[in-house]
């Protein structure tokens, strides 16, 4: 028999299968992946550095949707705003991956490059070295929390009737659709405004 035109197993197929399992179940295991791929578990390990290696492949795949050109936007606060919106959209597409990716160290070189650019941007406009990772981490917390919120039902409050919590009922009726987007833009604007004020205080 001739060799198959498409390799039975490669890193792309491994990544796709792992992300499919995560999107479905919120988790994955190498044996689960192997079964879905129709190969032996040991065959997967020929292509990746254990389960952690698969996690990093998934991280690279999800983060590939983040627009790195956002860092070329001027001024710096517009760049960070654009990055945050793109970051949120990338992770909102795979919300079940968030707990997995955010509780394991970042090792993927392409993802680390995003952080390097963010650090250089903030240092370049005057943030102190000791402040930079605090700013980036705070922004990530906002983005990832909002990505999870975006994946949640539009209405997260189910009232038995309008009489026991009438003002809440009115507020829910008034917010309309797009609550998650509006909340994200409010929080992002407040965050960028505070970061801008910190920088302005240094220059005063």
Automatic annotation (TrEMBL):
Residues 29-48 bind DNA. Keywords: DNA-binding, Transcription, Transcription regulation. Transmembrane segments: none annotated. The keyword Ribonucleoprotein does not apply. Pfam families: TetR_C_1. Residues 8-66 form the HTH tetR-type domain. This is TetR/AcrR family transcriptional regulator.
